[in-house]
Amino acid sequence: MTDHYSALGLAAHASLADIKKAFRQKASFYHPDKNDAPDAAQRFAAVQKAYEVLSDEAARQAYDDNRRRNLLDDPLQTAQEIWQTYTHNILAP
Questions:
Q1: What is the pLDDT along the chain (93 residues), one digit of tens a residue?
Q2: Angle at CA 28, nearest 5°, toward 4 and 20?
Q3: In 3D, which of 2, 7, 4, 5 has the Cα closest to residue 89?
C-alpha cells in the first residue's frame, strides 16, 4: 500500500491547507523539468497521486479507513512498509 502522507511528508492529521502547501512544494521540487534525478518523474507522479487522494474528502476518508484496516489486519507487513518508506525517504536525497 502506498503511503500518500509520506509522499507529501505529512502526518495523517494534516489539514487541507497543509496538504496543498506540501503538494506545491514537493511538486515544484520533483518536477522532471526542474529535477535531473533519475527518479524525479516517479516521485512527481507519487506526489500528484497523493494530492489527488488526500485533497478529495471522500477519497481521503476511504484511504484513511483502508489504512486503519490494514494496520489491524497485518500489522507486521504494515510496520515493514512504514520502515521501508521511512528509510527510503531518509536515504534518498
A1: 688 999 999 998 999 999 999 999 999 999 999 999 999 999 999 999 999 999 999 999 999 988 888 766 677 877 887 888 888 777 765
A2: 50
A3: 7
Distance CA 79, CA 62 (A): 20
Burial of 29 (0-12, 13-18, 19+ CB in 10 A): middle
Domains, the chain, ranges and CATH?
A: 4-91 (1.10.287.110)
> Please, what's the b/e burial string for 53-82 (b: 16 or more CB within 10 A of its CB; e: otherwise)?
bbeeeeebeebeeebeeeeeeeeeebeebe
